[in-house]
Amino acid sequence: xxxxxxxxxxxxxxxxxxxxxxxxxxxxxxxxxxxxxxxxxxxxxxxxxxxxxxxxxxxxxxxxxxxxxxxxxxxxxxxxxxxxxxxxxxxxxxxxxxxxxxxxxxxxxxxxxxxxxxxxxxxxxxxxxxxxxxxxxxxxxxxxxxxxxxxxxxxxxxxxxxxxxxxxxxxxxxxxxxxxxxxxxxxxxxxxxxxxxxxxxxxxxxxxxxxxxxxxxxxxxxxxxxxxxxxxxxxxxxxxxxxxxxxxxxxxxxxxxxxxxxxxxxxxxxxxxxxxxxxxxxxxxxxxxxxxxxxxxxxxxxxxxxxxxxxxxxxxxxxxxxxxxxxxxxxxxxxxxxxxxxxxxxxxxxxxxxxxxxxxxxxxxxxxxxxxxxxxxxxxxxxxxxxxxxxxxxxxxxxxxxxxxxxxxxxx
Length: 412
Prior knowledge:
- This protein is an all-alpha fold.
- It folds into two domains: 1-188, MFS general substrate transporter like domains (Growth Hormone, Chain: A); 201-412, Growth Hormone, Chain: A.
- Helices cover 81% and strands 0% of the residues.
- It is built from 17 helices and no strands.
- Helix 10 (205-218) packs across helix 11 and helix 14 packs antiparallel against helix 17 (381-405).
- The two termini are 33 Å apart.
- Residues 193-202 have low confidence and may be disordered.
């Protein structure tokens, strides 16, 4: 069997086990645990959810060092840390007092950082493991498998809610799946030498970060695209990170499994249905034009949610959740490849790094801004998200026309 096929099978099985093992860290389950198991404060629940996104910023700062170490060993080392944290979490959940609550959130923060570092190390190996002309299909396969398995988090929350399993048992089981995934991954065949494509300057975390941000004014079109992404991302995060908190206040008795259905299962199914449509569309019309449609879909999301809250209609809440999943289907693709429409091949890493960094900034700030704003405006915060989303539509239209006029590629 060729190394390509062998590695593909190994990583597919790893993805299956790892997705199951880390669902209690990387999905909205930590947020639901804070709200429903610990009865913790809203701001702490938002912190537990925001950390998943904000960790991108820290990964970018130190990513330059990854080329100086054996990436597979780095991946396995951080994986062992995550497994240990999962096991330790199971150990402390015999109680749900305030001290344990803060320890739980702290562990979640550390685990998410380690998981993001693992993903960075893993993806940096793909150039050596797989042919360049198949990387897109490889990435799509792993994303599809991982997204399907995230839906199991609903089953997990239902089992906890019904008392079939305890949170302790769930985290002990997660640790076992993570260890199994690491054992499988250890069989990946990595070439003995992987070329170091980064200069010493790029390994300096401060120079790397500054060099990335300077692209925003050196490349005005990319700068405008990232500005629009910041506005659209802010609109989304104001609500999406706080959706469990908002629904708890507006509808009262919502169970942890209902939250999981609204926040995980329904949008995930919508994403799976739409992701291949978005893939074909992006190939035809490019990322900027695709963002016009994506923003329009998010607009329907906020309209449905606002009306659903005003008229106490859970059906419209589910419709809103489905629309958000369809819109996020475009993000599954564009988050990873949109930078390539602006950058030259030799500058891909710099362009992608700034995109990751700004994603981390959004995750760090706008979840808390949304919670604070909701306390003052109530459900009318959805109108702010709607307004911000609608602002981006003419911006994307202008950018798409400008890129065509300047003879800049709008498709690859």
